[in-house]
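Sat 14:20. Reprocessing the chain from the morning session after the first attempt stalled halfway. Input below, unchanged.
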Amino acid sequence: MIYLLLSILSSTAIFILFKSFDKYNVNTLNAIVFNYLTASICGFLFSQKQLSFDDIITSNWFPPAVALGALFIMMFYLMALTAQRNGLSVASVASKMSVIIPILFGVIVFKESLGFLKILGIVLALIAVYLTSSVSRESIRMKRAIMILPFLVFFGSGIVDTSINYFAPDDSIPLFSSTIFAIAAIIGLTLVVIKRVKEKRKIHPRAIPFGIALGAVNYGSIYFLLNALRVDGVETSSIFTINNVAIVALSTLCGLVFFKEIISTKNWLGISFAIISIIIVSLV
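Finished this time. Tokens:
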């Protein structure tokens, strides 16, 4: 389970870096672009196969990789829009509850088991994600016109997790991951250039080191997760459940320790449910 642990730590580091952007006044879009550039370079460097552009574009997994690269940028935009219009907690819940989509996909497509204990663990996991991410009702004012955003985040995040697991080739995981990040980087650079020309915005130098650090852990989160999913005897549903719940719980604790965030009784109850669900799913 070392791959799963490294994936959880890498994903948690992503949230910590995002949280640090406001503190150090880092331009988010610029950092995201350098993040994708770094992540793609990491993938190409760690690839054990000889790199060939022709082999990449003619491979069976290239079209899905292109689509996923575009989806990565789109989901980042939707997440930001949801956080701005609906509230941060709504965006977080919609993103993390999407774990149910790859779990159901594993059960339906891969015929994985779905006994009582696994169902109980999954239900507790979803409750844990909601409780851990929730804030007071007074701080969130929903409007019917923007209710569609959380649903788009929910289904989009679930499609990303499911597609990465389904299309990733067992013998080319680093190359597959780096191609996705490279496509996202190209799209991101295009957006930066457009903004540079239209709005005359300059690239913020401070975004470079933060983007590089973000890219390293971002690549690690995907690479380690894909390797964890390919460990013999471990089911997709268990990996995704443990991964997502552990990230929520650990991120909450990091917010408490490093950023002095206030954790409510409901949040602590969610963390407790997360630990229980991880134990249940791990033992099934």
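Residues 173-199 form the longest helix (27 residues).
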